């Protein structure tokens, strides 16, 4: 009799990984793209210094299931709001997931602004995969 071999389900979905504004922290997003790609996601990266409107349009053009924003620089209060506004203006229901050095009061403000998921910096690979998977399953 054959033994039952446990199987794992690969993560699925198209992710747009974005660096907004003058934020220069592409190292974390590159590592994250590898981790999420290995987990089964299709990852598209925007490159550095993107305007919120360009990221929103790329999400529409690429049929992204979620946008992953890494923003340790601290410019999230302005730029993430602008990104969400740009998505709304395109009637694009794409969850925006955020990592950065956010003060606790910013978490609530970002959620109120429409961010689907927020975590602090230094997230491990498996945690990042779990966070993004949950954000896609349960969009805000
Ligand atoms: C390397 C580094 C730099 C490099 C960046 C190189 C690059 N190409 O990315 C350089 C030298 C350019 C730099 C510059 C600056 N830096 Co700097 N930098 C760091 C440092 C030491 C490490 C960041 C890093 O690369 N980590 C390694 C990567 C692989 O890890 P990661 O970013 O955490 O990403 C992982 C996870 O978090 C997760 N992840 C990342 N994004 C996402 C997104 C989602 C959705 C999910 C689920 C997971 C996830 O996956 C990644 C892989 O596991 C941090 C301190 C720290 N220990 O974090 C400061 C730090 C981020 N820098 C800081 C600062 C202040 C600056 C400068 C403003 C300094 C200055 N006055 O000029 C500039 C800003 C430049 C700019 N234009 O943005 C501060 C930010 C403080 C804040 N926001 O409150 C920090 C926290 C240092 C500190 N303690 O003060 N920096």
Structural description of this entry:
By secondary structure, the chain is α/β, with parallel strands linked by helices. It has a single domain, classed as 3-Layer(aba) Sandwich (Rossmann fold). It is 44% helix and 15% strand. The chain has a 5-stranded parallel sheet with strand order 2-1-3-4-5, sandwiched between helices. The longest helix has 14 residues. It is globular and about 35 Å long. The N terminus is likely disordered. The structure holds cobalamin (B12).
For the record, what CATH class applies?
A: Alpha Beta
Counting DSSP H or I runs of 4 or more residues, the number of helices is 5
* Low-confidence runs: 3-7
Structural class: alpha/beta
User: Which sequence of SSEs, written as H and E, runs from N to C?
Assistant: EHEHEHEHEH
Give the full name of the CATH homologous superfamily.
Cobalamin-binding domain
Largest sheet: spatial strand order:
2-1-3-4-5
**Helix amount:** 40-55%
What small-molecule ligands were found? cobalamin
CA(first)-CA(last) distance: 47 Å
In short:
By secondary structure, the protein is α/β, with parallel strands linked by helices. The protein contains 5 helices and 5 strands. The chain has one domain: Cobalamin-binding domain (Rossmann fold).
